[in-house]
């Protein structure tokens, strides 16, 4: 297969590129390196079936490909709030450009959407049928609404132009190749613990998240790309195991042996209090569910950050 991965030098994209390359597929990794890093794909550059192109998906791209995995977009609050207009343009214009390419070359295309489309959910846990509770004018809206608009474009291209689409909604994911400064809770806690700095919990620590190890997520995405024709999704991909922020902090402290203490700060605007996927559809259609326990995944992630400090 010829596979185009946008955002391919990012956290999740780099893992997908590695799996595709080692499977023997021809991979074109496209990234503008706004949040992606060449270090994430350095070992892939030695493979003849891997190519890196520095390109911004807000601009059209003309290539030949069989699959498109559209992951291009800053995904952590620190990064997507740094330039909210750019974030929205990446989601919307990037989707338009990649859908246009998929239409021209008759490629199957996957949109890496997000659990953020559910906003601060009033339904728990969240099934794909839930339409969400999203603030359209808040500081997180550039990402939340950008991803919602991208989903709209995907389904309109499918209905109007018969483009072969796949949509997955990714819940909290962690693992090697995360950026140390991305502001996500797992990387924050691990880096603070390794440096014996205060571990910062926003709110009272009772808000919950579900954490999916990146290897499990990559497997789910590739199974979605190989799924039956006509099955579009959206499909939740995440770990239904639910942990409070305080439980996560305690586990990181245990695994690192850190002397850090836990401190509390005010909860940011529009930060969801609960996040947990219903994955019945992924089990039914993809035969997929997460395999890696949080404790085991955290060990691998801590080892990665320890090596790169």
Structural description of this entry:
The structure is a single chain. This protein is α/β, with parallel strands linked by helices and 309 residues long. It has helices spanning 11-22, 77-80, 84-105, 141-161, 185-194, 214-225, 245-256, 280-286, 294-308, and strands spanning 2-6, 26-31, 50-54, 67-70, 108-114, 165-170, 173-174, 199-202, 208-210, 212-213, 235-237, 242-244, 262-265. Strand 1 (2-6), helix 1 and strand 2 (26-31) form a beta-alpha-beta unit. The protein is globular, with a radius of gyration of 19 Å. The two termini are 37 Å apart. The model has no long low-confidence stretch (mean pLDDT 95).
Short overview:
With 309 residues, the chain is α/β, with parallel strands linked by helices. It has helices at residues 11-22, 77-80, 84-105, 141-161, 185-194, 214-225, 245-256, 280-286, 294-308, and strands spanning 2-6, 26-31, 50-54, 67-70, 108-114, 165-170, 173-174, 199-202, 208-210, 212-213, 235-237, 242-244, 262-265.
């Amino acid at each position: 297969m010829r596979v185009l991965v946008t955002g391919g030098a990012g956290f999740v994209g780099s893992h997908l590129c590695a799996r595709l390359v080692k499977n023997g597929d021809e991979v074109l990794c496209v990234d503008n390196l706004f949040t992606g890093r060449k270090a994430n794909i350095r070992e892939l550059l030695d493979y003849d079936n891997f190519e890196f192109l520095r390109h911004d998906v807000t601009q059209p791209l003309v290539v030949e490909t069989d699959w498109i995995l559209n992951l291009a977009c800053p995904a952590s609050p620190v990064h997507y709030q740094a330039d909210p207009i750019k974030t929205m343009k990446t989601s919307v214009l990037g989707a338009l450009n990649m859908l246009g390419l998929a239409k021209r070359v008759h490629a199957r295309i996957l949109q890496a959407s997000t659990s953020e489309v559910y906003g601060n959910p009033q339904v728990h846990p969240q099934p794909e049928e839930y339409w969400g509770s999203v603030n359209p004018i808040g500081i997180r809206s550039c990402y939340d609404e950008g991803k919602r608009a991208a989903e709209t474009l995907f389904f309109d291209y499918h209905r109007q132009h018969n483009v072969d689409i796949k949509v997955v909604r990714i819940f909290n994911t962690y693992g090697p190749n995360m950026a140390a400064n991305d502001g996500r809770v797992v990387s924050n806690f691990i880096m603070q613990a390794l440096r014996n700095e205060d571990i910062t919990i926003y709110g009272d620590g009772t808000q919950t998240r579900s954490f999916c190890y990146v290897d499990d997520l990559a497997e789910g995405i590739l199974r979605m790309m190989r799924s039956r024709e006509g099955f579009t999704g959206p499909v939740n991909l995440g770990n239904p195991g639910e942990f409070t922020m305080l439980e996560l902090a305690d586990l990181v402290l245990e695994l690192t042996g850190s002397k850090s203490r836990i401190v509390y700060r005010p909860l940011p605007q529009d930060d969801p209090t609960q996040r947990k996927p219903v994955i019945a559809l992924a089990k039914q259609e993809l035969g997929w569910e997460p395999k890696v326990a949080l404790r085991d995944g955290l060990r691998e992630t801590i080892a990665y950050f320890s090596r790169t400090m």
